[in-house]
């Protein structure tokens, strides 16, 4: 089961998406459906069929967002987190081959379309939680254990995570 945690910026992004869908996108699509329906025969009316389908997709997403936003718990930044890996941290890790990865540990609702965000529920995030700079991180993989070292931990007191952008 997914953890119901989210950063402040992620929470705001979901609220922005819900607001945009409900106040802008849905009324526009509803107008298109009404217009297409007024043309008569709906069985062969592509505008009507497409926009009716889009309206169902919007309604489904709105229902999901309303329920999800209600279930989420926002985890605000706290200066006491500094120095250790916790939720919301930007973590840089390095392995023995000098490969490095930098990622932010966030909630599952925030990782989509963001290559440098990982879910708190992922094996890598779970292995990193509570570590300090210089600590070894062991990640269990199907091919065996992977060893990494935490080289940097950063927190942002003012979040600048990407917010919802209109399609």
UniProtKB/TrEMBL annotation:
Belongs to the GreA/GreB family. GreB subfamily. Residues 5-74 form the Transcription elongation factor GreA/GreB N-terminal domain. InterPro entries: GreA/GreB_C_sf, TF_GreA/GreB_CS, Tscrpt_elong_fac_GreA/B, Tscrpt_elong_fac_GreA/B_C, Tscrpt_elong_fac_GreA/B_fam, Tscrpt_elong_fac_GreA/B_N, Tscrpt_elong_fac_GreA/B_N_sf, Tscrpt_elong_fac_GreB. Pfam families: GreA_GreB, GreA_GreB_N. GO terms for molecular function: translation elongation factor activity. Necessary for efficient RNA polymerase transcription elongation past template-encoded arresting sites. The arresting sites in DNA have the property of trapping a certain fraction of elongating RNA polymerases that pass through, resulting in locked ternary complexes. Cleavage of the nascent transcript by cleavage factors such as GreA or GreB allows the resumption of elongation from the new 3'terminus. GreB releases sequences of up to 9 nucleotides in length. Keywords: DNA-binding, Elongation factor, Protein biosynthesis, Transcription, Transcription regulation. The keyword Cytoplasm does not apply. Residues 81-155 form the Transcription elongation factor GreA/GreB C-terminal domain. This is Transcription elongation factor GreB. The keyword Transcription applies.
């Amino acid at each position: 089961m997914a953890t119901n945690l989210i950063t402040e910026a992620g929470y705001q992004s979901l609220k922005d998406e819900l607001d945009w869908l409900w106040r802008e996108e849905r009324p526009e699509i509803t107008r298109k459906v009404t217009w297409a329906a007024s043309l008569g025969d709906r069985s062969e009316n592509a505008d009507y069929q497409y926009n009716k389908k889009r309206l169902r997709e919007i309604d489904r997403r709105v229902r999901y967002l309303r329920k999800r936003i209600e279930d989420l718990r926002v985890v605000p930044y706290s200066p006491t987190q500094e120095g250790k890996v916790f939720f919301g941290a930007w973590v840089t890790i390095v392995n023995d081959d000098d490969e490095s990865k930098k990622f932010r540990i966030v909630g599952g609702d925030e990782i989509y379309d963001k290559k440098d965000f990982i879910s708190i529920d992922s094996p890598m995030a779970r292995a990193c939680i509570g570590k300090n700079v210089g600590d070894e991180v062991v990640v269990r993989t199907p091919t065996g254990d992977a060893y990494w070292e935490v080289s940097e931990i950063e927190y942002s007191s003012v979040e600048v995570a990407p917010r919802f952008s209109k399609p």
